[in-house]
Amino acid sequence: MTTTAPTGPRVAVTTTDGVTTIALDSPHNRNALSNQLVTELHAALAAAAADDAVRSVVLTHTGNTFCAGADLSEATSSSSLDPARERADQLIDLLRAIVALPKPVIGRIDGNVRAGGMGLVGACDIVIASDSSSFALTESRLGLAASVISLTLLPRVHPRAAERYFLTGEKFDAATAVAMGLVSEAVGDTASLDASVATITGELGLCSPQGLRESKAVVTHDVLAYLDANRDRVAAQSSSLFASDDAREGMTAFLERRKPRWAL
């Protein structure tokens, strides 16, 4: 049976008291990074950047998954001669837009984060996660590597933690995410999460636009430099891997909910 994706926006945006909340709102595919979602997210970020009344941005989600990563159903759907490279560049541009946004971005995580979604978390300036959240870099289990999202993760995450979780693809919890430098704070439940985010946005609201802009430029300088220096290398690796037999088998097995049959 074929399932038709619902129509309508994939991102929900509200602005209140100087805080723009951008919610990934595509729960039918676990907020996967479809072309539509990425396009709408870019537009929401640009609008927040252009609004002088906005002091901060909260990036969050509907449903129990923040973001599951790439929309594998679109993995090869493109008019480009190299759709995998096009999608790699698309994600890099999105990560860069979050890091370079002249206003702080707070990640509000209350669910599962997988693969490409981890790159979004790494791109945020401050990240608050509930104890019910879980994280995983699942690319190695699909015949891929966390190539593109390494651009925002490796400058922030402890090297030993990166080595373990990039390689194993295993899940880890919010407390571990804090210890490794991915998450700023872990809190108990959704109410505590909302209270903590409100505290952070309240503190940011006391700052001047110039103070926030220039302070963010200081703390993101090295991340942006790393991203710009390595984007072509990781995009080329990602493109090559998506075109490989291993990746095709891994993605097919994932979509068919079976174990992959790796070539020996």
Explain how this protein is built.
With 264 residues, the chain is of the alpha/beta class. The protein has a single domain (11-204), classed as 2-enoyl-CoA Hydratase, Chain A, domain 1, CATH 3.90.226. Helix content is 46%, strand content 16%. The strands form two sheets. Strands 1-2-3-5-7-10 form a six-stranded mixed β-sheet, sandwiched between helices. A four-stranded mixed β-sheet has the order 4-6-8-9. The longest helix is centred in the C-terminal third of the chain and has 34 residues, at 209-242. The protein is globular. The mean pLDDT is 94.
The CATH superfamily is identified as: 2-enoyl-CoA Hydratase, Chain A, domain 1
Element order, helices and strands?
EEHEEHEEHEEHHEHEHHH
Strand content is: 15-25%
Considering DSSP H and I runs of 4 or more, what fraction of the residues is helical? 40-55%
Decide which structural class fits the backbone: alpha/beta
TL;DR of this structure?
The protein has 264 residues and is α/β, with parallel strands linked by helices.
Fold topology:
Elements: E1 11-16, E2 19-24, H1 35-50, E3 56-61, E4 65-67, H2 83-100, E5 105-109, E6 112-114, H3 116-123, E7 126-130, E8 134-136, H4 150-153, H5 159-168, E9 172-173, H6 174-179, E10 185-187, H7 190-204, H8 209-242, H9 245-255
Helix pairs in contact: 1-2, 2-3, 2-8
